[in-house]
Amino acid sequence: MEDRSLNKALDIYSALITGQSISLKDKATAELYNEFYSDSEVYDITTKILARQGLSIYEYNESLFVTAGSGNKVFGYTNDELKRILGLRLNVELYLAFFITYHALLYFYKSSDTYQVREYVRVDEVINSVTQDLRKVLGDAAIAEDHTENSFKSIASLWEGLPPFLNEDRDRNKASRGSRYGMTKLTFNFLISEKLFVNVDDRFYPTDRMHALAENYFEENRSLIQEYLEQEKDNA
C-alpha cells in the first residue's frame, strides 16, 4: 500500500464523515472525486474503511455521499436521540415523523423503477396525503385491533387527535408537535438539517444527497425489502 493512496483515501473519508459531499462539479472536491474513481487502490482503501465502520457510500449526479444505514451506533441515531433532536417525547410521535417522511418521499418516487416525478412538495400536500392514508388505517378492522405503541392504529389515532394548526404555526420559524402542521414542519426541519431537503419559499426541494440515499438504498436492500413485504403479506 502506497502512503499516497492511503492519504488520499483518508482525505475522502474525512470529508464524507463530516457531512461534506465530494463532487466532480465542485472545484474544492473534484480532485478527490477523480482520485476515488481513477485510482483503484484509493477506491479499495476508502470503501474498506467505510465498510468497517458500517457506512455505505453512494453516488448520485457525479457526487459521493455516505450513510450510516440502520443499526449504526456510532454514526447513526438511536430513537431517543432522534426524539431529542426533533423535540418529541413519545415513540409514537417519532413513528409519526417517520410516516410523514415516507409520504414526503412518495411525491418524488412512486416505485423502485421510477425517478423524480416532481421538483418540490409543500407542507399542506404532505399533510393531506398523511391524513388520507391514516384514515384508511383507522377504517381497517384488522389494524384497529392492534393497540401496541408502534402500530399504525396508534400513529393514526395520534394524528387524528392533532388540530390542523396552532396560533404559533403562523410563525414560519417555529414548529411544535401540537398540530399536524407543526409535526410536519418539525419533520422537514430535521430533513433540512440532514441536508436532505432545502426550503425555498415554503417549497421543499430534495437534494442530491436525498436522491442518492433514496435510489441507492432501495437497490442495495431490495431483497430485504421484498422479504419484509412478503412477511407482511403472509401475516395479513
Features of the shown structure:
8% strand; 11 helices; mainly alpha; two-stranded antiparallel ribbon; 3-stranded antiparallel β-sheet; 236 residues; 5 strands; elongated
Explain this structure.
The protein has 236 residues and is mainly alpha-helical. Helix content is 56%, strand content 8%. The protein contains 11 helices and 5 strands, in the order H-E-H-H-E-E-H-H-H-H-H-H-E-E-H-H. It has helices at 3-17, 30-38, 40-52, 79-86, 91-106, 123-138, 141-144, 152-161, 180-193, 208-220, 222-235, and strands at residues 22-23, 56-60, 63-67, 197-200, 203-206. Strands 1-3-2 form a 3-stranded antiparallel β-sheet, with helices on both faces. Strands 4-5 form a two-stranded antiparallel sheet. Helix 5 packs across helix 9. The longest helix is centred in the middle third of the chain and has 16 residues, at 91-106. Residues 232-236 have low confidence and may be disordered.
